[in-house]
Amino acid sequence: MKIVTKALIASLLCAGLAACSSSSASASTTAASTSNSASGKKEVKIGMIQYVQHDALDKASAGFKDALKEAGYIAGENLTIDEQNAQGDVSNCETIANTLVNEGVDLIFANATPAAQAVAAKTSSIPIVITSVTDPETSGLVASNTAPGNNVTGTSDLTPVEQQIDLLLQLVPDAKKIGIMYNNSEDNSIFQADIAKKTAEDKGLETQEFTVSDSSQIQSVAESMIGKVDAVYIPTDNLLAEGMANVAQVTNANGLPVIVGEEGMCANGGLATYGIDYYNLGFKSGQMAVKILEGADPSGMAIEYLPSEDCRLSINSASADELGIVIPDDIKAKADLIG
Predict the structure, then answer these.
(1) Environment class of residue 317 by beta-carbon count within 10 Å: exposed (0-12), middle (13-18) or buried (19+)?
(2) The predicted structure's pLDDT at residue 70
């Protein structure tokens, strides 16, 4: 997909892009089970695979489970969940995916791009509901975001990258050159980094990319940014979300502001973000799972996005103090202050 198209998708996010259509499920995607629970719901078994443990993905998983509960699917009564965490290891994703498919679960919930890619490669019949995937189409998970055409559907965590770059300029108005730090082995990170680079350059900023591929590189790459750029942008990158405290320990101590992709990264030392609510994202995926369990066909269910009202401004006041940045009153009045 061309960068221009990526930027267009990003601009649509906070305009409230959302679409969902459904049709009758085929026999292969219908959860076949009994209906002897107190709620009258079918007994189902769901496999959950989360790529790594960090604040955003944890919230998405919690939201997913709460949506099931609200719809009458109660763990221990008519719902069995096999919940697995791959601990940020792609090979673990493969192992977990095989296990869930072999168990014959009724539906799989895949949280984050590597987890979704692993399970999608293992089954074309078990319905898969994804979340925390920036662009399912370019990640090879669906034929298109508007018409998946297979057993995969769910929600995108595409963040308002353009507004995040605007926030960087509001908080660091003298910035001329920004670093874009991301994991170059994750499709979702590459996708957002490309948008950030084009957006920044369109605003007259110079950019320099700083990439990592495993956690052992985070500190050294963070140190390599000092003196080279005026501020840093990090998207919703799973590896860096998990290691954000290590980044912030270097950047904050050296007066280098970092704008991040989501609230959990801000809480762990990033200066600020304007991002989505991952609990609500997971909840929306859970609602889609309920539709599938009750007969909808995932192949006709478009990828869904959160509406603009779920975008929130967060500022880490402790990081701002350490950096010596005074937050303008008009921005502070609109922000959730962390730290």
Answers:
(1) middle
(2) 97
How far is residue 237's CA from residue 183's CA, in Å, rounded to a whole number? 7
- Is 23 in contact with 300 (CB distance < 8 Å)? yes
Give me the CATH topology for the region 19-157+277-306.
Rossmann fold (3.40.50)
Q: What's the helix, strand, coil split of the chain in %, to 5?
A: 40, 20, 40
Total length of the chain:
339
**What pLDDT is recorded for position 40?**
72
Would you state the pLDDT for residue 39?
Answer: 56
Report how far residue 257's alpha carbon sits from residue 269's, in angstroms, rounded to the nearest whole number: 10
pTM: 0.85
DSSP states of 184-225 as a string? TT-HHHHHHHHHHHHHHHHTT-EEEEEEESSGGGHHHHHHHH
CATH architecture of residue range(s) 161-275+311-338: 3-Layer(aba) Sandwich (3.40)
Contact (Cβ atoms closer than 8 angstroms) between residue 60 and residue 241: no
Percentage of the chain beyond pLDDT 90 is 86
DSSP state of 21: -
Neighbour tally for 95: CB within 10 Å: 13
Residues of the chain with confidence (pLDDT) below 50: 1-37
Every domain of the chain with CATH number 3.40.50.2300 lies at 19-157+277-306, 161-275+311-338
Tally of CB atoms within 10 A around 69: 13
* Alpha-carbon span 45 to 81, nearest angstrom: 6
Question: Could you tell me if 252 and 40 are in contact, meaning their C-beta atoms sit under 8 angstroms apart?
Answer: no
